[in-house]
Amino acid sequence: MSEADNNNLSESNYRSAIKAFTWRVIGSLDTTFISLFQTGDLTISVKIGSTDFLSKIILYYLHERAWIYFLGQRTLTHLISFLKAVSWRTIGSADTAFWGWVYTGNALTGLKIGGYELLTKILLYYIHERLWARVPIGSIRKMMDRIKERFK
After folding, report:
1. Are the CB atoms for 117 and 69 separated by under 8 Å?
2. What digits encode the pLDDT tens for the residues 1-53?
3. What is this structure's pTM?
4. What three-state secondary structure class fits 139?
């Protein structure tokens, strides 16, 4: 197999970026609803959810690229999806607990929001990973290449 063929079998930066964005939409909506449930304050909930959206785009992208680096060309199995979900939730819940604390001024409220997230988001993330596992590697890259060609 040539180096060019081998490169087409790995996930592209485009794919990671699009996965990060789709996950953030789902994750931030979940965070906003959990925050609203915990605080009863829509303004604080939207602040937590929107800050969460921005901070986790960066964190998720870095998490995704780290897993790609460590996995190499291995297939995304159910076990790997589960392990990715758990590692991401550890990072993600800590980030959410921090922002919950910042915006409410109460560390316990931040921990509660992060704790509830732990329960909801492992399942949501697993589903997200399994849906993305159905998107063939290289298809996002090909789509982006076609878009670039149109705008040359």
Report:
1. no
2. 333 444 445 677 888 888 888 888 998 999 999 999 999 999 999 999 999 99
3. 0.70
4. helix
Structural domain spans, the chain: 3-146
* Closest C-alpha among 35, 31, 33 to residue 109: 35
How many C-beta atoms surround the C-beta of residue 4 within 10 A? 7
Give the CA count within 13 Å in the CB-facing half-sphere of 95.
Answer: 21
pLDDT in tens, 69-118: 888 877 778 898 889 888 988 898 999 999 999 999 999 999 999 999 88
DSSP for 25-81, written as a single string = HHHHHHHHHHHHHHH--HHHHHHHHHHHHHHHHHHHHHHHHHHHHHHTT----HHHH
Token pair recorded at residue 104: 């409410």
In the chain, helix, strand, coil percent, each to 5? Answer: 85, 0, 15
> Which residues lie below 8 Å from residue 49, measured CB to CB, with a gap of 6+?
28, 29, 31, 32, 35
